[in-house]
Write a structure and sequence with these properties.
Helices cover 6% and strands 39% of the residues. By secondary structure, the chain is mostly beta strands. Strands 1, 2, 3, 7, 8, 9, 10, 11, 12, 13 and 14 form an eleven-stranded antiparallel sheet that branches. Strands 5-4-6 form a three-stranded antiparallel sheet, with no helix packed on it. The radius of gyration is 24 Å and the shape is globular.
């Protein structure tokens, strides 16, 4: 097994020091068989590792304008746009350099980021268990559960609990007709882009931490043009592979987007890859 540090970015340099355990993969060669009989097979897969992550660089660029006023009547530092994408209704914008009160309070100082953590890599530590059994000579049924955990404590507080997360849990039937899956599994939207990031960039490295002082796997290039596929309740079908091509389609549990107005979805969403 190889272990590499993440590629440097403009705001972060992270170095992976320790990496051990199994490798999570969708292919059978990553599985370790625990018990195998003529009637069933019990297998496991997963990975474990830890990294020293050091983030150092310039902080968020300071605002150059203030929008609105605070409780004292002074111009309030803030974005020109709110989270819902509409422009804030406020008095005329105030140039901060023309306001000595805000300038003296450090509102225009950019500052630096300097944070060191011992954290998970691109994905968290994971442990999966599965049972596979033949239904007929050509058809196989599989039940699978996968748990993820993180190395780091939330907000560097070692007294807080760090529970395991049931990332996947599904039943699957596969045969000459393809595969039918039902349960909790990865979404299809952006799954290919996420896999490319995992396989060729940050599989055994730290990647960009994103939330510097929180928990969870680092994001690699997710958020820099790549959207994470995520997980959810699903029923999906995958065709047999033909010359390296495969079509997967399914329906997923309705999703809410915390950063936009999509908070009232009620219909199952279709996805395909």
């Amino acid at each position: 097994m190889k272990c590499f540090g993440a590629r440097p970015s403009r705001v972060a340099v992270a170095t992976g020091l320790l990496c051990s355990g199994f490798v999570v993969s969708s292919v059978a060669k990553a599985e370790k068989t625990l018990v195998k009989t003529d009637s069933y097979e019990i297998f496991t897969d997963g990975r474990a590792g830890g990294f020293v992550s050091w983030v150092y660089g310039d902080g968020r660029p300071p605002p150059t304008r203030a929008v609105g006023t605070d409780a004292t009547g002074q111009p309030a530092v803030g974005s020109l746009w709110n989270i819902l994408g509409g422009e804030l209704e406020a008095p005329e914008e105030t140039e901060l350099e023309d306001n000595p009160t805000l300038a003296e309070a450090g509102a225009m100082k950019q500052g630096t980021i300097n944070m060191m953590r011992l954290r998970s890599g691109f994905i968290g530590n994971s442990l999966g268990f599965g049972v596979r059994a033949p239904v007929s000579d050509l058809v196989t049924a599989t039940a699978y559960l996968q748990f993820w955990t993180f190395v780091e404590s939330p907000n560097r507080n070692k007294a807080l609990p760090n529970p395991a997360d049931l990332k996947q849990g599904y039943a699957m039937v596969d045969g000459p007709f393809g595969k039918v899956l039902a349960g909790r599994a990865r979404a299809l939207f952006s799954r290919g882009a996420t896999d490319i990031n995992y396989k060729y960039a940050h599989a055994y490295s730290v990647g960009f931490p994103a939330a510097l002082d929180s928990t969870g796997p680092t994001r690699g290039m997710i958020g820099f043009g790549v959207m994470g596929s995520g997980w959810g309740g699903t029923v999906q079908y995958a065709t047999p592979e033909l010359a390296g091509f495969q079509l997967t389609a399914g329906i997923f549990d309705p999703i809410q987007n915390q950063a936009a107005r999509f908070t009232r979805t009620k219909w199952a969403r279709p996805e395909a890859e």
